[in-house]
Amino acid sequence: MNANNDAGFMVPPSFLGLEHLATAVVLLDRDFQVRYVNPSAENLFKFSSKQVIGLPLPQAFLDAEILSRAVDFAQTHHTCFTEHEITLPDSSGHALSVSCTVSPVEICETGLILEFHQIDKQLKIAREERMLLQQQSNRELLRNLAHEIKNPLGGLRGAAQLLEHELPRANLREYTQVIIKEADRLQSLMERLLTPHQLPQLQLINIHEVLERVRSLTLAETPQGIAIRRDYDTSLPKLLADPEQLIQAVLNIVRNAVQAMHGKGEIVLRTRIARQVTLVKKRYRLAVMVQIIDNGPGIPEAIRERIFYPLVSGREGGSGMGLTLAQTLINQHQGTIECESQPGRTCFTLLLPIIN
Predict the structure, then answer these.
(1) What pLDDT sits at residue 203?
(2) What is the pTM of this model?
(3) Rounded CA gap, 244 and 327, in Å?
(4) Which CATH entry fits the domain spanning 198-356: 3.30.70.980, 3.30.565.10, 3.90.230.10, 1.10.3720.10?
(5) Distance CA 269, CA 290 (A)
(6) 247 or 125, greater pLDDT
């Protein structure tokens, strides 16, 4: 980087040391035009200095209204200002969560230094901690609720059966049958609420055998309009896991996708290796990443943040337990499950640690 850039704005030699910083740094002039970016900023936002030098801030950083306000405040009050959480897209459109400190500097004329720190990892860890606490609360609540409901439910069903034998006319028994069938349905739901607390029976497994079982089951129970495509990394090492629990977790997600697409669409089962990942506050060198991707309508925005909560469902008649159970089973394997959804593409990502 030369001391003078293409627009004649002088960057003093002392600022050229910024090239060696791990922190992403962008220098603006008083008109909020980009005059310098260090290599860390180029790496973070996936642009080159030639692409952005000379551009106004709103053109260099799209969707940067919050960033523009922070820069304006720092210049107007001639003081440092930090915006602790901003979402900015990089040049490929991928959203980045960053904090930004804006500092006025004197460089022949008044300019501004923007220091960016990526906080995606911190936000991910904080989100995982919140989810774990929420899951623990949900599990305790559901266990208590299930136990409280089971006993009176059994009494209700038994009373309906006795009443059925006492009724004088057969056509009246259809009402007792409604009571009995609904009691059985609720009993089944209560059992499902209690089932996830069984500990996994661990053994070395190939994750692709799990996915192939899910694929076979799904194709056997769905119409011809559903296609399930494989995208496997066959070099993945074996996992220490409970195959039946993983089958149940993946099957619940795939069934949700089939129902969301109303029997017409494509599901992709993808596997990859993930390196140096933090799962449930623990660092692992390697993890297996499983992605279940569908091209359906997407998850309704109103419930997108709550899809793993119990009894939350995006379809009429759904119990809202499938994804809750899937999350519980994955968590019992020290793994995580996340979802990104928009119309035309919903992706569930499962990360399962490889324990040597």
Answers:
(1) 92
(2) 0.56
(3) 14
(4) 3.30.565.10
(5) 7
(6) 247
